[in-house]
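SAMPLE LOG
Freezer: B-3
Tube label: C17
Construct: single chain, 376 aa
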Amino acid sequence: GETSAVALAAAKGPEAARPKKRPTPPPLSHPRLLCTLKGFSEGVTGAALSQDGALAAAVSSDRTLRVFSGLRQAGSGAPLPTPLIANVHLDFGTACSISASGRNVLVATAAGRRLLAYSLSPKLQLRREFDAAAVHPAPLSAAILAPNSQYIVTVGSEGDRSVCLWSLSGSLVARETAKQAAVLGASISADSKLVAVAATAQLAPGRAVAVRHGQVPVFEVVARGGGGGDAAEPTGLRQVFCVGGHSRGVTAASFAQDCVHLAVAARDAEWSVVRTDLRHAEPVEVGRGKAPHGTPFERVALSPFAKRLVGATATGTSIVDVGRGVTLETIPHGHGPSPPTALQYSNDALRVLSAGVDGRLRLWRVEDDDAKAGAL
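STRUCTURE (predicted):
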C-alpha cells in the first residue's frame, strides 16, 4: 500500500521518504462528491474522520497537520471554516487519528517514530510527545487513539511486525509481534476491546496462501478488572483468533463502528466480512464478494451494521452491498494513479472520507436514503 511504501522510505530519512511534488490535479466533479479539502502542497500520508463526522484530520509529506471542521454541512453550499494548521518539526506524519471527544489529534512521525498529541482548543497546539523508536525500528503504519480514550495502539510497517499498547501518558503497556510476514495497518473495534491487524502471510503478491491460513490477527485488550470497559485500565494484549479465508495476501482490514463486523480485502481480488462478537471462537463470515474487474481493493471501509462496504483501487472507489455480495456503483476517486492513503466511513453510514497522494481529501455521499443511516 501507499502508506507502507512511504513508511519504508522514511527509514532512510525524511527527505528520502517525502513523495515528490505532483502537478495540481484538475478539479473533480461528481454527484456523490460533497466537498474537496485542499491546502497540502504534497501527498496526504494519513487521514481520519471524527466520530461525529464534523472533523477530519490529515498529515502530509509537506510536514503539516491540518484539521478541517464543519463537515456535517458539507454539500450545503455554505463555505467551510478555515482549517487549523500545525507544522511537524523536521519530520512528517505517516498516520493520525482523532479522539472520541474530537478535542485531540494523535500523529505518528516518519523518521523519528514519535507520537505527537495535539489539542484543538482554542487552537491546534502540540501538548505532548513521546518516543516510539525504541520499539518500532520502522515508521508506523497506524497510530490510533482508542474510542474509549483509555489507550493508544501503534503498529509497525512491513518488516516491523510489532503491535504495541500504550497508556495516554506514553508508557509502553504491552508489545506483541504478529506472526505474519508483514503488517500494513490496524483497526480498533468501537467498544475498544479488539484490535485487528492487517497483516499478510506472504510478501510476493502472486504467491498462494492456504485459505485457512489466518492473515488478520485479532488481539483483545486486557484490562484491569476484566471487561475492557470505558473506565478500565488496559494492562495487555492477547491474541484471540486469526481471520483467514483468502488465497492471496491481505491488503486491508477495517472494523465497522458497531463493535461486531470486520471487513478484509486481499490480493485474490475478493473481500469478506466476518462477525467478531463470538469471543474466543472462530469468526463467522457473513459476506463475501469479488472486486470489480478482478482488481484487488487496497483500502476498505465498512458501514455500521455492515450494510455497505466501500473498497478502493488505484482508479476508483466501489460501493458494495454486503448482503448480496454485489457492487452497486464504482466512482472515480480522483486521487491520482495510486490508491487512496485513507478511507473511512462516517458513523451515520451516509458518508465516506478518502485521501490520497494528490494532496486532497474528499467527502462522499455513498448512501442516497437518509432512512438507512446507521443509528448507533
